[in-house]
Design a protein that fits this description.
- By secondary structure, the chain is of the alpha+beta class.
- The chain has a domain of 122 residues: Cyclophilin (Beta Barrel), CATH 2.40.100.
- 15% of the residues lie in helices and 26% in strands.
- It is built from four helices and nine strands, in the order ααββαββββββαβ.
- A nine-stranded antiparallel sheet has the order 3-9-1-2-8-6-7-5-4.
C-alpha cells in the first residue's frame, strides 16, 4: 500500500515557508544592512496667523546624492570623487562623512581602505568597474580607487560609487597615510 506523503494543502504551506527563508548571499564577510529610510512628521497646525508652509521633503529630495563631490585629502594632496550613483551604499558613505581612513596598495590595481563600520549594501547594484571608478567591495567591506581595472568583469559584489580623475602616481600619496574624506561645496 502506498501512502501519500502530504496532502496538497500541507505541501503548499510547506513550500511557501521554504520560499521565505533567507541566506547570506555568497557567504560574504561584509556587513549588509537595510537601507535607511526617511520619515517626516506633520507639525501641529499653527494657532496664529496662517502662512504658507513649504512642501515637506520627499525621498527624492533627501536621498539623491548624485553630483555630490567627496574630497579625499592628505597633506597637500587631494583627489575629488563625484558621486554618480544614488543607491543605499552611496547614501551611507555620504552620510558617514567626514571621516578618516588609511589607504593601502592592492594588487597593482587599486588603492583600498576599510570604513570602520562598513557601508549599507542591500539594494545596491553590482558593476563592471573601469579605471577611474571609486567602488565598494562587499565581501571585504572596502572602498577602492581602481586605476587598473583591466580584466575585471561585472560582479554583484562590486558597487560603483563615483568617478575620479587621478593617475596611479597621484594616488600613491595615499599609501599608508591618514586620508580625510569630506563633502565639498
Amino acid at each position: 500500500m502506498i501512502r501519500p506523503l502530504a496532502s496538497t494543502g500541507s505541501l503548499a504551506v510547506a513550500l511557501s515557508l521554504v520560499g521565505c527563508a533567507t541566506a547570506d548571499a555568497g557567504g560574504s564577510a561584509g556587513r549588509i544592512e537595510p537601507s535607511s529610510t526617511v520619515t517626516t512628521s506633520t507639525p501641529a497646525p499653527p494657532t496664529g496667523p496662517s502662512t504658507p508652509a513649504s512642501p515637506a521633503p520627499t525621498s527624492d529630495d533627501t536621498d539623491d546624492v548624485v553630483g555630490t563631490v567627496i574630497r579625499f585629502s592628505t597633506g597637500g594632496a587631494s583627489v575629488d570623487v563625484t558621486i554618480d550613483e544614488d543607491n543605499p551604499t552611496t547614501r551611507d558613505l555620504v552620510g558617514s562623512l567626514p571621516t578618516t581612513l588609511r589607504f593601502e596598495e592592492f594588487a597593482g590595481r587599486e588603492k583600498i581602505a576599510y570604513p570602520e563600520s562598513g557601508l549599507a549594501v542591500e539594494g545596491s547594484p553590482g558593476s563592471d568597474p573601469e579605471d577611474g571608478d571609486l567602488i565598494y567591495f562587499t565581501p571585504w567591506g572596502n572602498l577602492g580607487f581602481y586605476y587598473d581595472a583591466s580584466g575585471i568583469d561585472y560582479s554583484d559584489s562590486t558597487i560603483h560609487l563615483g568617478t575620479y580623475e587621478a593617475t596611479a602616481d597621484q594616488l600613491a600619496i595615499f599609501d599608508g597615510t591618514d586620508v580625510t574624506l569630506d563633502v565639498i561645496d
